[in-house]
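Worked problem 6 (solution included).
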Amino acid sequence: MSAENKALVRRWFEEVWNKGREAAIDDMLGPRAVVHGLGPDMQGPEAFKSFQRAYRNAFPDVKIHLEAIVTEGDTVATRWAGTGTHLGDGLGFPATGKQVHFTGMLFVTVENGKLVEGWNNFDQLGMLQQLGIVNLPK
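Solution. The predicted structure is:
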């Protein structure tokens, strides 16, 4: 199963993020799936679609590259890097036109060929700093 689970996670990043295919969320995310770490917990495909729409609006050219992927049992872990140009207001502030680079990690549980729970961690602060939205004191 580990090869199939890895393939599912690869497909998730390619279809949902790189190609922006919202319909792929229904194909791969379980109906009661829970997604942690991207703001308040989201449950189910419809909740995740709102998140994906907002980010794809803000970064319509987002590209995610998987740097490492490992499995153990029904868990898949991946480390990834992404780039995008901030061209929309989907994150709640006007587009800056700036290019960003961000990184993250995901641990996901797979059951019956669907993603059922995900724990995300990505450098949102670094992304907001690159956009000039957050400026830390020196």
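Discussion: Helices lie at 2-18, 23-28, 44-58, 124-131.
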